[in-house]
Structure prediction request, 293 residues.
Amino acid sequence: MICAAPAQPVAGQAVAAPAAAAAMPTRARCAASAQLPAVARAAAVETVAQAVAACTKAWEGGIKRQRVELLLPLIGATDLDDWPGGIRQQFKAAQPMVEELLRELKKLPGLEGPLSARILDDGDAVAAWEGKSLAAVLFPTAETLGEVRKIAEARRDGLVLIVNPQWRTEGNVVSDLGILPWVRKANEELVASFREAYVLRQLRMNSDDVKLLYSYPSPWAVQLRRPDAPAQNECVAQCASEPSYRELEATLRGVPWSMSSKPLAERLQYEAAFLRKSLEALPQDQQLPPGGQ
Prediction:
C-alpha cells in the first residue's frame, strides 16, 4: 500500500510560437507544501512558483535531469473543446510559464547565463531553451529524443528539464519509444534518467475532479474537489510513489463525500448537470487572453 491519508493538518530569450501558429478515509488537510493553486492567471503564476521551489530543491539534492509537468491555463476554450488549436494552442499557454521558470532557475549559483531558444519540431510545437549549464525542452516527443539526448549530454554537470513530455510509456501495444528492442531500450533509459521534480496533473474519474500533485521532495498528494463546494480542493491521500489509476479509484471510493462512492444513478445525474454547465461559456477570470499574455 503506497497511499495514506494525510497524518495532520497541516529565463532567457523568448522563442517564437511554432509557425502555422488501497483507499483511506480522509478529512485531514494537506501539508502546506501540497496546497493547490486556484484558477487562471493567478494559478499559472502560483504553479510556476511551486515548480521553481521544487526544481530548486531537486537541483540542490543532486538531481540534474528533471521532469516537470505544468497544468496549463485554458486559452481560447470553446463549448466543445478546451484546446481547439491542439498542441500549438497549448504552446501559447506553456511558453510564458516555462520562460518564467527558467528566469528564476538561472538565478541559482552555477546556472547563470543567457539562454537561446529554438524550435525542434514545428508540427508538434517542441521547443528548447539552451544555456551553458541550464536547458529545457518543452513538449518533447519520442521523435525528438535524439535532440533531448544531445542537449542533456552537453550539460552533464548542469540542469536539464523536460517539460510536459508527449510520449506514452504505458497502455500502447507499440511503444512510443521505439519498435526495435535496442532502440526502445536506449530511449527508455534516457527517459528514466529524468526524475520527477514537479507534477500538477488534472484528472476526471467517475465524475470526480482530481488533481495529482508532486513537489520534490514531498509525497504525491491526491487532491479532490468537493462536489458541494467546487472551489474547494481537499487532500484525500498522500503516496510514497505515483499512484496507479486503480489505486486512485480505490482511494476515491473510500472518501464518503466523493462521487466515486455514490450509486451509479446519482453519478449519472451529477454528470449530466456537469455536462450542461460545461457547455456554458468559461468565465473570463478562468481564461487567459487568446494570445496567452
